[in-house]
Design a protein that fits this description.
2 copies of one chain form a homodimer. Chain A is α+β, with helices and mostly antiparallel strands. Chain A is about 15% helix and about 30% strand. The longest helix of chain A is centred in the middle third of the chain and has 17 residues.
Chain lengths: ~725, ~725
């Protein structure tokens, strides 16, 4: 039940008068003020710590044609007065909200939204009293704030040149960061102090094709930090719509982070029309790392679901024709030619290369496998014409999303899947030719409905068309939302790869099950891969904004199995791959390996078959970014729990109290653990499975190998 | 019947060996050679004149990521070997074509395609024998040539940095030019020598909003020239597809024109995939100006119609709710607010401004007027929501093309028009938000079909979205063709305003009836307007590539009729406005004035009612660019002719021999002429109508007032 207690403060304040609110439990304090120049500023304290020192706020504006190179007549950017200083406070509103809401699917089935809000209405008298509202919401675990611009005579259309938001930190904190980059978030993390951040190494990261590195001292958000006082601070954003993504510029002497928005093709950042608002900037803080992972603040800041009837939205487990292409035993392309054309190529006349992955026959085998083992869906990549020369050509007419290859009988497969009660998952690799995708979307979604594909995995590999736009810019942010909306209109679900990192919009669009939008398991197949600590960092960074389709569950850890020359491998033990189904939350989970590898380890595979994808409750038992995570989750609607415990390159013993179980009840725990001799590099596929009786009074002590993990089903 | 005589020359040539062909009548000579550096070059002679001195050919290539600011790792542009030098001749093919073909509609019903062709296959030995073909076609009135790139191992995808095509002229010719501009062709013409071209004045042309002026010595093609030896030379292009438009850079000391292609958002010119070809570059030349106008070379160079069943394609005359908005007595917008939003504005709640043009009631009056006077169609602008803030905001979600204003009952109007046997013409002003238009196109065309609109007028006012792209760039060129193709698929016709100037593609897409793509009559309503010579230049420039929807037929010449403060006027007499229906060829012609002005001059209006829009034959009787044009056309399928004679600011007597009429037949000529006291500025609306008997032996002598004209129907 929602309780709102609204307290109005209608007072004229002097420019130096500050406003403070506390979080409901009193631990956090948010203070807002205007400086003597009328610059809005805020600071944040937690218990007796300063989290964010006095930091400025505001937006810098420009004439949208200035400095774009287009119109040499337009006035210079400096002539457009910014929303940065000279403010007075017109009004201050304060309120408290305390309510419960229920997500369609999630880590938990019930979420408490409890915050104190301070909304400051500012005017710029020298600009005809142009109005800006800064709204702060203070939760027990963090702060969210955003800028709002009501419809008003003196502010209509405006263009953002920069956002001036700062996060002034107290010290040279340890940070888990990836290079600021307008186009990709597929880096592995570096742990270093802020002063030691140097993103220029990214120019040598060759496993990522499409990079637009901002500069030495620029990093992405979400940014996870740990202070010398063992405070955990996470800076990110929520509800990224109609605006570019926020990266962060680090002042490496003073430890001030400044927001850096992604530009568009002509150097502007955002085009705004009142009434409008920016995304929420979030600072989540706790002295317990597990609290960061458990935070629901980003979801709470998002708009409620826009979809009324959600009965067609269903979490899924799936298999797919996919990994074989990454390890090189099959291909996306049908033929080995380097020049094809949607309008003119006669696909039937091409000579098949003999290793095309997406064939009718192989797909039916996957459908059989899915049906036999209780998987909801089968994804098939490489089913549609165009893969022969799709990559790296900046080709606009690259895919049509409706023409199958000659060896993929979409109708037969559709009927076969239906007969086995298995859903087909569509694949729309756009190759970042987004103008092409948008003009073909209606036809592509009609095709999906015709052949019974309830979900689509989209991809945005390589450089964006419209050329000059970036994956993280406002235009693309609007595109990803357009796709979610149009799919929702068609009652279809979405899994977006290589998109901008999510910011909680799956609350508003619950058909948007997952994104990739970070470095996933696939990098292990064909590059230096992901270090053992990678999955202990992702929940503190990428997953703060939403589920990740990490595609775990690779059993055949080393790639030399496929080709003796290949040196690549997954950098975890097999048991850790199982644990990831619990530690990397997603309502959409893939059993990513090829069926024959599962058939060789059906005992271990049983965990993947059993693990749920939708939860009543989640307990983050212990966590340390970059080191380890242990989490327990209760299956929605069942008295069943799953536990996942993972570690980095250091082995450890996970101590897992089971006090979340019902008292006075006996359970069975099926424990999938690293064998004693397991090691992510030397002996990754060595595991053991133990069954034991447990109760709520038990504390499990599980030894995790270096790069290892443990997956437990309690039932 | 097509006759092809093919002569093969399979000889290895030394690099200095030249190849020559002559036009079928022997007057033109085209010579091709390779210089000692292996640079391809050509020259063109006409009778004893040099038309084009030895001029280089070739393309400069680049890595598409170089210098785009995106990828700092990519090699510099200079590292990509260009298609510019180091060629050897591998093969020379020669042939003759002589055939007749029939356009779906046109100035004539039968066109002869007669040329000699020279196709030179060039190889670059230092680049693995990379292959380029330059194909020359020499007609009796001019030359066309293009570059072709066959599918080959050593050339697959490539990016054009510049085209090196030159036209080296003999002297400082007189030119009729408009400033080179990536975004607009709506300038009036300047007549000057090449050395005196200075396009920088364009920065002060305030009646055009969206300009991207290239530089002082850049002009647009088509470029019309006259030499001191009274030779007429027209340089242009044909079949502009999958490539940017060609502007021209003038070397003002040596009188060399170099092709200048329009860039895209990141500074690249064209993205190519073999097999591919450039548009044809055309040089049309004659010692008779009328021959330039009569030339069919550009049409002959275009691909035949891609539309099999053309029965639904029909030339039209139309009226429309349109001019009243230009003269200010009505508005496109429904309400006077400056901030609306497709997703959220409640249109019914807005306060109507009382002068909205596109109302049900007004539309029905236009339908009545059209039915009464035999017009095929009614255009209505401002029927759909979004006009309140559509202009100058670079707004992406500007129009949805399917939501009418509250006072426009699309269903009632649809039924009413059908009951009166009048067609409704749709209006899709895109506001240059082309990504928005493309993602809404399917829905918009379904809407047209549902409500019985067989044709659409599109508009591209203001700056393009994708931002950074230009109206004349490759991406937009591809867009215009996509629109024509998708409309053809839906059996709908197209009239494109503010698009790139046409280049004969209406042969390939005969549903593409017309473009504006130059400065039309509307400029007279609200700006300095079009000087009296304007319409005597347009056929030598803009109309070389295709019909123009100039929207003639304004009877109320001076705008102070609407508002005593208005100083604007149409810069012609009323009689000249009638003549334009004959001199400015289009299968789509608007009676552009408001009905009440026609009702005041029904005698003159009769000409517009009678004039045909599709022809069996056309005779250009006399013409001088910038001075006068007299043309006679025979109505398709009838023994009826129409004559139009116009002049510039100088009055003159047009001498019109009627020897094109059938011998031994008496005709009636209804002559709509300037009255003796007529003058475009002092007394523009003074006209007289005379009927007289005529035969093929007669020579009419008609006095044209300054800025005047004469329209004649012979029947």
């Amino acid at each position: 039940m929602k309780q709102i207690i609204t307290l109005f403060f209608l007072t004229a304040f002097s420019v130096s008068s500050a406003q403070s609110i506390k979080s409901p439990d009193g631990n956090l304090v948010l203070t807002f003020k205007l400086t003597s120049d009328g610059i809005p500023a805020y600071k944040l304290g937690y218990k007796n710590y300063e989290v964010v020192k006095e930091s400025r706020l505001g937006l810098k504006l420009k004439d949208m044609y200035a400095n774009t190179g287009i119109d040499k007549l337009s006035p210079s950017a400096e002539n457009v007065p910014s929303l940065d200083k000279g403010f007075v406070t017109s009004k201050v509103d304060s309120s408290i909200v305390d309510e419960i809401w229920h997500p369609v699917w999630g880590e938990v089935s019930s979420i408490r939204n409890n915050y104190r809000e301070l909304a400051v209405t500012l005017l710029q008298p020298t600009q005809n009293n142009r109005q800006m509202i800064i709204r702060f919401r203070l939760f027990n675990d963090g702060l969210g704030f955003r800028y709002e611009f009501p419809m008003q005579d003196n502010l209509n259309y405006f263009t953002v040149a920069d956002e001036l938001t700062q996060f002034s930190l107290t010290e040279d904190h340890i940070a888990f960061w990836i290079p600021g980059d307008y186009d990709t978030n597929e880096y592995y993390y570096t742990k270093s102090t802020l002063s030691k951040v140097d993103a220029t190494y990214a120019t040598k990261v060759n496993e990522i094709f499409s990079k637009t590195i901002i500069g030495k001292n620029f990093v992405q958000s979400p940014l996870m930090m740990k202070t010398s006082e063992k405070l955990y601070i996470n800076i990110f954003e929520a509800a990224l719509v109609d605006y570019p993504a926020m990266h962060l510029e680090i002042d490496q002497s003073n430890f001030i982070l400044t927001s850096h928005l992604v530009p568009d093709a002509v150097g502007n950042k955002a085009y705004m029309q009142t009434p409008c608002k920016t995304p929420w900037r979030t600072v989540i803080v706790s002295d317990k790392a597990a609290d960061i992972l458990a935070s629901k603040t980003i979801l709470n800041l998002n708009e409620p679901s826009k979809i009324d009837d959600t009965s067609w939205i269903k979490p899924m487990k799936y298999v797919g024709i996919w990994w074989e292409m990454h390890v090189g035993t099959a291909s996306w392309n049908y033929a080995n030619v380097n020049n094809v054309c949607l309008k003119s190529t006669d696909w039937k006349s091409l000579k098949p290369n003999g290793i095309h992955g997406a064939t009718t026959e192989r797909t039916k085998r996957y459908i059989d496998f899915a049906a036999k083992h209780g998987f909801d869906g089968v994804l098939v990549e490489g089913w549609n014409v165009g893969w022969e020369d799709w990559f790296g050509k900046w080709k606009e007419e690259v895919f049509d999303f409706v023409t199958p290859y000659p060896d993929f009988d979409v109708e037969e497969i559709s009927n076969y899947a239906a007969s086995k009660n298995v859903k087909m998952i569509m694949h729309h690799e756009t190759s970042s030719s987004v103008t092409n995708y948008e003009r073909r979307m209606d036809e592509a979604y009609d095709f999906m409905k015709k052949y019974g594909y309830p979900a689509v995995k989209t991809g945005y590999v390589a450089r964006i068309i419209p050329r000059g736009e970036f994956h993280d810019g406002q235009w693309m942010v609007q595109h990803y939302v357009r796709v979610a909306e149009r799919l929702a209109k068609n009652k279809l679900m979405l899994n977006a790869h290589e998109a901008v990192r999510p910011t909680g919009l799956h609350r508003t669009y619950p058909n948007w099950l997952a994104c990739e939008s970070a470095r996933g398991n696939e990098f292990n197949a064909w590059s230096v891969g992901n270090p053992p600590e990678h999955e202990t960092i992702l929940p503190f960074t990428r997953l703060m904004g939403g589920p990740m389709d990490y595609t775990p569950g690779i059993f055949q850890i080393k790639m030399n199995y496929y080709n003796p020359d290949k040196k690549e491998q997954v950098h975890t033990t097999l048991a850790k791959q199982l644990a990831l189904y619990v530690t990397l939350y997603s309502p959409l989970q893939m059993a990513a390996d090829i069926p024959e590898n599962y058939e060789k380890h059906l005992d271990a595979f049983q965990f993947i078959k059993d693990v749920a994808v939708d939860w009543d409750d989640t307990k983050y038992i212990e966590a340390e970014p970059g080191d380890f995570i242990t989490v327990a989750r209760k299956t929605k609607g069942k008295n069943e729990w799953f536990i996942g415990a993972i570690t980095d390159e250091n082995g450890r013993t996970a101590e897992i109290p089971l006090n979340f179980l019902d008292n006075n009840k006996n359970y069975t725990a099926t424990i999938y653990a690293d064998a004693k001799d397991a090691h992510w590099e030397k002996n990754p596929m060595s595991y053991e499975i133990i069954n034991k009786s447990v109760t709520s009074k038990d504390v499990l002590k599980i030894i995790l190998a270096p790069g290892g993990g443990c997956a437990i089903r309690i039932w």
